[in-house]
């Protein structure tokens, strides 16, 4: 079989995708019409032409603008169902999905509106396609520690019942510059004490990224690192990650644009260092609709991955997934 066919058929788990970042231009148009929300562009092509960014802040500006289109429970349902339907076709069997409640709560929406829409879509997608999914609540790192903690408190009833809400962990995303994991130590400690899993984005504070990784792993007890490629520059961080069994969620698509100079050598070096990596999409709606199969194809081409390495990378994702061993056994 061809590499393309092999990648299409490979059973996959995704561990790093921002649901708000899966918002495709055509759904934007439908939401804008439904909610009487003015759009600067009238065609999907036009909208996609406007996706010009060169770093994380310029990307986040586009992402935050798109988020404004999500208003009702139905909107959140449609967003989530579209993503799950799409990746189910790519033989994604399981996915852990980031979402950013603060971007909705600060616009006056209720946490329940967001979560009810997602949960209904997750149930329907599981019924329709068999795809299983859980959610990871992310804190926006350029917002205050107080805002994160208040959001956590607002989410509390849902966090207490992951069997219903499917929120199984908390994460940290958005603008890393000057916003170290330690800023959110209190809220992450609350989450950990409740038995929630922890993960954090780490790689885009040019001055302090190594200290951020150290804090995430050593001080806050993050189980995974999202991106985290800068470990390669510090032997002691490589050792720490190896000893703790940390899994890295790597995303070739944003690496090409907002994390330039990444990907090829880094994927090779991570494997050579004996680190556990997974390949993921991040924000496919804003990045040429590069979902899981396409992300794996990019990584394969960039780092010359063999079928054996791709199978191992796929297994890594199922092994690092925050699911019961009984469920894991159904995939592996
Ligand atoms: C993100 Cl690519 C990326 N990096 C950090 N935070 C994010 N939120 C959505 N996409
Ligand atoms: Zn991300």
UniProtKB/TrEMBL annotation:
The Adenosine deaminase domain covers which part of the protein? 11-330
| Free-text remark on how the cofactor is bound | Binds 1 zinc ion per subunit.
- UniProt keyword Metal-binding present: yes
Quote the EC number: 3.5.4.2
Q: Which InterPro entries match?
A: A_deaminase_dom, ADE, Ado/ade_deaminase, Metal_Hydrolase
Catalytic reactions of this protein: adenine + H2O + H(+) = hypoxanthine + NH4(+)
Q: Which family does it belong to?
A: Belongs to the metallo-dependent hydrolases superfamily. Adenosine and AMP deaminases family. Adenine deaminase type 2 subfamily.
Q: Which HAMAP family match?
A: Adenine_deaminase
For this entry, the protein name equals Adenine deaminase
């Amino acid at each position: 079989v061809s590499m393309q066919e092999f990648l299409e058929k490979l059973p996959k788990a995704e561990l790093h995708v921002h649901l708000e970042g899966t918002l495709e231009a055509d759904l934007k148009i439908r939401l804008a019409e439904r909610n009487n929300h003015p759009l600067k562009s009238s065609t999907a092509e036009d909208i996609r032409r406007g996706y010009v960014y060169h770093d994380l802040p310029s990307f986040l500006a586009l992402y935050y603008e798109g988020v404004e289109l999500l208003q009702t429970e139905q909107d959140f349902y449609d967003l989530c169902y579209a993503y799950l339907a799409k990746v189910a076709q790519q033989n994604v069997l399981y996915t852990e999905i980031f979402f950013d409640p603060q971007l909705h709560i600060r616009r006056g929406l209720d946490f329940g509106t967001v979560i009810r829409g997602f949960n209904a879509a997750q149930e329907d997608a599981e019924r329709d396609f068999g795809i299983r999914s859980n959610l990871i609540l992310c804190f926006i790192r350029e917002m205050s520690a107080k805002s994160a903690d208040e959001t956590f408190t607002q989410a509390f009833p849902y966090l207490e019942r992951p069997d219903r809400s499917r929120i199984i962990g908390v994460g940290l995303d958005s603008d890393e510059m000057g916003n170290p994991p330690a800023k959110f130590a209190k809220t992450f400690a609350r989450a950990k004490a409740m038995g929630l899993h922890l993960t954090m984005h780490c790689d885009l504070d040019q001055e302090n990224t190594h200290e951020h990784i150290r804090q995430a792993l050593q001080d806050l007890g993050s189980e995974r690192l999202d991106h985290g490629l800068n470990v390669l520059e510090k032997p002691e961080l490589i050792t720490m990650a190896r000893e703790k069994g940390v899994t890295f969620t790597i995303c070739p698509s944003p690496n090409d644009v907002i994390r330039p100079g990444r990907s090829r050598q880094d994927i090779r070096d991570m494997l050579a260092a004996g680190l556990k990596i997974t390949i993921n999409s991040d924000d496919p709606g804003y990045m040429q609709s590069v979902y899981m199969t396409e992300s794996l194809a990019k990584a394969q081409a960039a780092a010359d991955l063999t079928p054996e390495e791709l199978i191992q990378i796929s297994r890594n994702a199922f092994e690092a997934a925050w699911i019961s061993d009984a469920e894991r056994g159904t995939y592996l």
